[in-house]
Design goal:
The protein is an alpha+beta fold. The protein is about 40% helix and about 20% strand. It contains 17 helices and 17 strands. The chain is elongated and about 95 Å long. The structure holds zinc ion. Zinc ion (ZN) binds next to loops. Zinc ion binds next to loops.
């Protein structure tokens, strides 16, 4: 579990959830005790259980225009601004496939070890919903773009391949806005069609995951791959990465799948993990009480921390797929695939290996740093300015990632402490201008103000006191003021030494050079 202490999951907003064993012999301590009093005292279960989890991830592709028309995909534009007759579903218009979407799809599929179909088809997925003006979504069904891939994850140092069943392209729907006082009344709902026709990839996994932790690892790995490929922003808040999960539980050792439920509406990594933990515990509880799991779609209620059944009206499983007559079958040239394969960037696993050999940092560090392309870029940029790879690694994995997490700012690209800031501060420590302790103060200030470290040190007078005479004067004063403690120390109470160090540091506001303080104290206390 150390992995997550400073790992990127913390940054991508996973909280300190209890870790589950891969099999469940009791229901783990539960955060939602007020809703499920059953979990107050974890009961012993009659049976050992194992969870079976499969994930469906929708990711918005970072193309400039939509999948079947030339409208912009820009996020945050004025409602219904990025629309045209095609994405508004006007009759008589024809969709035209965006080549960039196919290329992004192929890139993703190759990076996930899939086989690309040389012949794939689009289908109409029919359902009526106000934010879908055509009353059908153009998607792929029987013959998707790519199939049979895998992603490798690491949990507790053990590698595991998670199968990728299929990857297909589809268009996004619009957005309904409820309960917003736009017209002076809350009695209206509004529709924004800007998102209609924004390209999506749907990446469906095999039910290969056995714990919420594995599911989280899979998602992180997947997000990392999409980032490295630069095909998606992967911004969960803006909806460019969305995840639904299929979950069932079964007696450990059984090969038969239990009845599954589908959980939707999980909008952060933290919520995916919480929702899975909740749903597994709920299913085990039902089975233990002799009940049966109902196959249904459930929503994750973030506020209550529970999953609840979707109202049947919201559930539209009877999709009725038809072939899309307005789009020709997609025939992909083998040469094009090879060309894209050659252009693939260095992905996380390769970068991990390179970090280990090039920078000589431990595998653990390399994995944490390369899980996100942007963290890895940040690390490399800092090392260029301050070529001590392990020191930089410690600071990035520790203080930088922790700071970002504290401020729920998952994106290192907008961190106020840039590689220049961090490298500058590390140089000041190395030169002895500031102590490690003062560096923490400088660090906080850099984060808050964005000022360069040299400026902060100057402004706040934080320069380390390395002048022997100056430090010796303080040491003498402290020793003289504490004769009893001196006597205790001389009588063999080693702990007293720490007291003196603390007092000297306090008297110098943490600015005394620690090595010097130690040296002088030892000298003076032994006389
Ligand atoms: Zn359009």
């Amino acid at each position: 579990m150390e992995v997550w202490e400073y790992g990127s999951v913390e940054v991508w907003e996973c909280g300190g959830m209890a870790v589950w064993e891969k099999s469940y012999t009791s229901v783990p301590p539960y955060p939602h005790t007020s809703i499920l009093p059953y979990f107050h005292t974890p009961p012993s279960l009659k049976m050992e259980y194992e969870a079976v989890i499969g994930l469906e991830v929708h990711t918005q592709l970072k193309t400039r225009s939509k999948i079947f028309c030339s409208c912009s995909t820009e996020f945050g534009a004025k409602p219904n601004h990025n629309t045209c007759p095609i994405c508004q579903g006007m009759p008589g218009v024809l969709p035209v496939l965006n080549k960039q979407v196919v290329e992004f799809g192929i890139r993703t599929a190759l990076a996930m070890n899939c086989t690309i179909a040389d012949y794939s088809l689009f289908a109409r997925k029919n359902y009526f919903y106000p934010d879908l003006p055509k009353a059908y979504q153009i998607s792929q069904y029987e013959l998707p773009l790519a199939q049979h891939g895998w992603i490798e994850i690491q949990v507790d140092g053990i590698s595991k391949k998670i199968g990728v069943t299929r990857i297909h392209m589809e268009e996004d729907a619009g957005k309904s806005i409820h309960d917003e006082n736009i017209t002076g009344s809350k009695n209206y709902s509004f529709i924004d069609f800007n998102r209609c026709g924004v390209p999506l990839l749907e990446i469906v996994s095999e039910p290969d995951m056995r714990s919420p932790e594995e599911a989280r690892e899979y998602l992180l790995k997947l997000k990392g791959i999409l980032e490295y490929l630069e095909v998606s922003d992967c911004n969960m808040e803006e909806g460019s990465l969305r995840c639904d999960a299929n979950i069932s539980v079964r007696p450990k050792g059984s090969t038969k799948l239990g009845t599954k439920t589908e959980v939707k509406n999980m909008n952060s990594f933290k919520n995916v993990q919480k929702a899975l933990e909740y749903e597994i515990a709920r299913q085990i509880q039902i089975l233990e009480e002799g009940g049966r799991i109902v196959q249904e779609t459930r929503l994750w209620d973030v506020d209550q921390g529970v999953t609840r059944p979707m109202r049947s009206k919201e559930e539209a499983h009877d999709y009725r797929y038809f072939p899309e007559p307005d789009l020709v079958p997609l025939v992909i040239d083998k040469e094009w695939i090879e060309q894209i394969r050659k252009s693939l960037p260095e992905l996380a696993d390769a970068r991990t290996a390179r970090f280990i050999s090039q920078y000589g940092i431990p595998e653990y560090d390399a994995r944490v740093l390369t899980a996100s392309k942007f963290v890895a870029d940040y690390y490399e940029n800092t090392v260029k300015l301050y070529p001590n790879p392990k020191v930089v690694s410690n600071w990035v994995m520790g203080d930088i990632l922790r700071k970002l997490k504290e401020h729920e700012q998952a994106d290192i690209r907008t961190c106020p402490i840039t590689p220049q800031h961090l490298a500058g501060m590390l140089k000041l420590i190395e030169e002895g201008t500031i102590s490690g302790k003062i560096a923490k103060v400088v660090f906080e200030d850099m984060y808050a103000t964005g000022k360069m470290p040299e400026e902060i040190v100057k402004e706040k007078g934080l320069i380390q006191i390395s002048d022997e005479k100056e430090v010796a004067a303080v040491v003498d004063r402290i020793i003289a003021a504490n004769p009893e403690t001196v006597a205790q120390y001389k009588a063999g109470k080693q702990k007293a030494f720490g007291f003196f160090v603390g007092e000297v540091m306090k008297a110098t506001q943490g600015k005394a050079n620690p090595q010097l303080v130690n040296k002088l104290l030892k000298e003076k206390l032994s006389t």
